[in-house]
Amino acid sequence: MKTTGNLGLKKPDGTDIVDIADLNGNMDILDTAVKAAQDHVSDAVKHITAAERTAWNAKASTAAATSSAAGLMAAADKAKLDGVAAGANNYVHPNHTGDVTSTGDGVTAIAPGVIVDADVNSTAAIGWGKISKTGSTLADLATRSAGDLNSGTLPAARLPFNIDAAKIGAGVVSNAEFGYLDGVTSSIQTQINNTVKKSGDTVITGTLTGPKFSANGTEGITHQATGDTVGLSAYRSGENDYQLRVNNNASGAQQDTTKPTLAMAVDVTKASPGFRMWYRPPGGNSDSWLNTFEVNALTGNLVTKNKDGLARIVAQSSSWAEVYYVRPDGNDANNGLMNTSGGAFKTIGAAIGALPQVITHSITIYVAPGTYNEPVYVGGFSGGGMLKIAGAASAATTHTITGQVSFIRNTCRTEFIGFNLTNTTLNAMQAISCTEAFFQYIRSDLGGSPVALHAENAKAYVNNCVFSRRSTAVLYAHTNGEILSQSNSGSGNATIYQAAYGGRIHGSYDSIVGNVQAGTNDGGIVTTGMGAVNPWGDNTQSQRSYCGAGPIAMQFVPRLTWTKVNYGGEYSDQRNEYDYNLSRFVNREAGIYSISAKTAFDNNGEAMNAHLRLNINGNHSWMLGGQASNINGTVIVGGTITLDMPAGTIIEVLLWTDKPSGATLSSDGTYSNIWITRVA
Fold first, then answer.
1. CA distances from 246 to 224, 249, 293 (A)
2. What is the predicted pLDDT for the residue at 306?
3. Span 546-678: which CATH code?
4. Which run of H or E residues covers position 644?
5. For residue 429, what are the CA distances in angstroms to 408, 432, 578?
6. Confidence of residue 218 (pLDDT cuts 50, 70, 90)
7. Residue 406, class by beta-carbon neighbours within 10 Å (0-12 exposed, 13-18 middle, 19+ buried)?
8. 182 Cβ neighbours under 8 A, 6+ residues apart
9. CATH 2.60.120.40-classified regions of the chain
């Protein structure tokens, strides 16, 4: 049996018989050994290992260390080490000789004359007291004066700025006089010889000023004589305004304000080049110039202006496209050629006044959003071109005009587009004696204005406009006026179309609502839809009043009582004028109408009379027919009548009978019905 190496514990092999005594013996050995270890750990004695013991034995003694024996550090040595810097070594400072000398104590000195100019930093500040002021080349500057600089050359860089001119030469030239030489690039005498009149030349008399030009102000070259002689001036006013003027009276200090003055100018401004002439009456001041006329080289127009500055073109021609601008923040003194506050007109009237009367191409006046408190008058324009006044791109309220708009006696095409008209007393627009006037995107929907567009001896085309609350008519063609209306709308109008004295109106795709669709007198013609060969051509049939209805049930009529016949089954109603619930017809337009009505009932041999008549506006009016009978069978009562009726006439049919048992009306539409047709 095997045993352990330290305590000799028995270890049975696989073939050994396990003896309890062996196990108990092992337990006893372990118990003894473990108890001894416990006792050893728990006692008060400190125990060390063999290695610790060896280390302790190698420690030095408590004596201070010497150069030959190890020991503890003395206090004096520790204090000395505390005063040594990190990295210090046993350095011995050497001694140097020559230009730079040093000794072991660290004192260093530089021999005289060793440092040269190149060795000195250019930015170094060296005190004046440390510079030797003696020698053969450096003067004692503290005691020297300008008189001592009597030889040699002093570089320009050494001179200070702003030397007073009185200190140069004899001191007779001032700073201002010295400044006159600035900018001189050649001989002054040569320049004088080439510019000043010499002996034998024509002598200039009077006052000569200039040349003098600047970026701002009114400056130039002026020659003006005294008295009544002619004055000549060339000047610039602003950046792009250059003028040459000839006056019959002097200006400025020599002007005689008791005499009239006439001025002529050649103007080379970018915006308005050309020739102008002014007139000022006696006693006038600088604000009294009257612009008599001007010729614009850019447009070729001859323009006259009155004392208020209002322009009128009297001779002109337009052969290319022109554009003008109007803005609420503009100024009528501008030329209207730029869309800025400094370039645009303030009023539409000013822009129209600047136009040529003969238009051979296209001219457009662009009007910015805003309110323009003015009437608009476009008149007297001719030519093969076109004049357009353009505001919004829809019938909006962004571009408002408070006055009446008039197009009168124009033979060229005119267009008026995109404005809100708020005039409530006069017709909103009128076109008189115009060959081609186009109105688009116009809104006029405030009450009070009688007519939206009045056309007289003019051809007008109205498109995509909004017209409401017209007290007379939306469109009025008078005395050979012609209006084509397409795709317009509006509501609350009295009459939509009114034509008189040969005036003609055609409406197509309009959705304008009015109490009366159309009215005519004295040869006026109104057509709608597809048009017509004549006022009652076949293709207008669908636009005429036409309706028919019959009963939907039997109806009892008591004896001796006027009773309305119920025609509750509608057959046709082209203009929505028949109310089948009330069995009532109300015409939308005045005209001549054919009315045919009848009804039927059975009689059982009673002696009786029956009468059928029209009830107009609630009153018994016209008898349609009557019947007297005592037979057994069907009694039919009816008739036809033609009436001239104003718009809004109410038509109903009533039956009266003295049949003792009353009458029961038939529900058969063959025998009982009503038909109404407008025939003229």
1. 10, 9, 15
2. 59
3. 2.60.120.40
4. strand 632-645
5. 11, 10, 36
6. very low
7. middle
8. none
9. 546-678
